[in-house]
Write a structure and sequence with these properties.
The protein has 196 residues and is an all-alpha fold. The protein has helices at 3-15, 40-55, 63-74, 79-86, 90-99, 113-117, 123-130, 134-152, 156-187. Helix 4 (79-86) packs across helix 5 and helix 7 packs across helix 8 (134-152).
Length: 196
């Protein structure tokens, strides 16, 4: 060591009360992303309960059934399929999805929701203008309302559903890809066209 290095080491030792190092020992952990310690089911239950309290929505579906609706929505299942599984009317599934802010792009693909949202006319007038039934207009208005609620909450609930349900699907796909890649690596270079 040269004189400057020794002088710096002595200053360091004086400042740190004789400690030779100020670094923490590192743990040998796997992964670098912070993980919520709750299970996916607990996280989903929490979101549904928070939304029930905040929006006071009424539905014939229990929390567990609402979670089933959310899972099925992320599995790209139709309202009819979900209704059949739960043994309820398809309108109850649509309303449950809207209450959970699970709006699909196909829910209002034929109309400009901003235009519907800002119109004060009754359903019959709008139905005649758009050439659809009054039920369809009520549906569009419900989609617009759900969209507004989600935006007002900064899409917090939808983001949490995305986090839990999209991550689970992503993790499953990644694990499958990893298994396939591992198999390719293990068999790389092996002769497959061998005659005995």
């Amino acid at each position: 060591m040269n004189d400057k290095t020794e002088e710096l080491r002595d200053i360091f030792t004086d400042v740190t009360d004789g400690e030779e190092t100020v670094t923490e020992s590192q743990e040998d952990t796997r992964g670098s992303l912070e993980r919520d310690e709750r299970t996916d089911q607990e996280r989903l239950e929490s979101v549904v309960q928070q939304m029930r309290e905040r929006y006071e929505f009424e539905t014939p579906l229990a929390d567990e059934e609402l979670i089933t609706v959310a899972r099925a929505f992320y599995d790209a299942r139709s309202d009819d399929e979900i209704a059949d599984e739960l043994g309820v009317d398809v309108d109850a599934i649509f309303e449950a999805r809207m209450s959970l802010h699970l709006v699909d792009e196909d829910d209002a693909d034929e109309v400009d929701l901003a235009a519907i949202r800002d119109r004060g006319e009754d359903d019959a007038t709008l139905a005649a203008e758009y050439g659809v039934s009054e039920d369809r207009i009520r549906r569009y208005r419900r989609v617009a309302e759900a969209d507004d609620q989600s935006r007002t909450a900064n899409d917090r609930y939808r983001d949490e559903f995305d986090s839990v349900l999209s991550d689970a699907d992503l993790s499953e796909r990644m694990a499958s890809d990893l298994r396939e890649d591992g198999l390719e690596d293990a068999t790389e270079g092996m002769e497959t066209d061998v005659e005995f």
